[in-house]
């Protein structure tokens, strides 16, 4: 997207003349302006949000950076002393003192290497590759490939792992030789990534602490984060479902003066029609609601909205949402799209016995743990004694690592083993109780849902609830606190009691896109069959073609969840074809 592109080249031994010509051509062709032009470091961008880290570093910060001082809103100016500390720490103090969506370039000094730092939870991407002594890093793959002249093949090993665990985002991408620097990591010229932001460090083992002040803390920090993003962009299109998370953003942004245009999508099936809830929200706030119907005829399964990305994360059923969001954005002269994405993840929405295991490890068997067991039973509908039995069994395995779920359906020779299916955040969290490991896994689970939309190529897509100050607060809270009283995200509901209508606060159900996905499957069944049986995935021997033939040949109405899995496989196939072309 124009206004958020950058290119960085690190070369410890210097950048050669032929390489420099190609780099200059890529920079000029993309309309970027030069920020740093040294023999060992080049940095260029088209972003309007740029500031110097200052002498003696000769570094730059690209993107949106905010202070953690809650008396200040909007973009922050880096203080001179903070710039010096940032340079000396290789960016570590920047992560501790500021937040936002940025990439920092820290030039070599005192014999140390140059490095690049990506903000924790920031949406500004960083892809990189090595070519001899040079390291190329860029905001997008197109710019990266133009500058480096790298011609990647498909990384079939990553594709195989993605098919088994499509919610797990690792540094590996679907293009051979192209790697992503994960949020909160530092990149050195040799291509080594170092974790600077570790979510496990924000949790302290708790026992009988009093959390009566937690709702007020959540309200203060949520309003601070949403208000900061709202001030940054001003005119916003917000997708609302009438669920708790998007409603919080609407109430907070509206109260703080943002120009808010709300949009909701409805399926023909009542399970995917949340207009009554969305209307209750916008009527309560006194703002206009744009309502649209989802139409399976508008879906083109051959087109991938992540064709500009190095991994197949697009969801074809989102194409109508893209079209309507862009329609409202043009009509309202919006500067950004907001969503409630990540709310369940940040606010630790778990439906398992893991919170009871945490409570048992903290308090032992007694009234407090029994109360948590009753909360889980009320939330899930399971029997309290069965919850206790399973919770005790889970607590006894306290040192076991989180196991990422594997889906081998419709895959050829798929294994249920989670070999290689991990992440540095989870590896650093082995000392945490199981519920908190699950909380960190939830934060990972949302990462592949934050990009892969067509509208992100036009305007920024912001998920305000995934802001660093709010995430760090929520990570500090024990897992059982989030479901007290048998309500999911209980402290959040308490925090916004005076800001949202009772219909929203009391809502336990969630809308689902499943009816719309079923309509897509039934309308495009022949296309799905042809794409999967005659496509690149089948050609690589990755699919169980016999099972797919059987599942797509039956023209009777859908009876199980196979449709959802098959649509996911088609989305990967569409991405593969966009790159193989």
From TrEMBL:
EC number per UniProt: 6.3.5.4
Highest taxon listed in the record's lineage: Bacteria
Pathway: Amino-acid biosynthesis; L-asparagine biosynthesis; L-asparagine from L-aspartate (L-Gln route): step 1/1
Entry coiled-coil feature ranges: none
Annotated signal sequence range: none
Catalyzed reactions: L-aspartate + L-glutamine + ATP + H2O = L-asparagine + L-glutamate + AMP + diphosphate + H(+)
InterPro entries: Asn_synthase (IPR001962), ASN_synthetase/amidase (IPR051786), Rossmann-like_a/b/a_fold (IPR014729)
Asparagine synthetase domain ranges (all copies): 240-577
EC class: ligase
Pfam families, alphabetized: Asn_synthase
Gene3D superfamilies xrefs: HUPs
Protein name: asparagine synthase (glutamine-hydrolyzing)
Organism: Sphingomonas natans
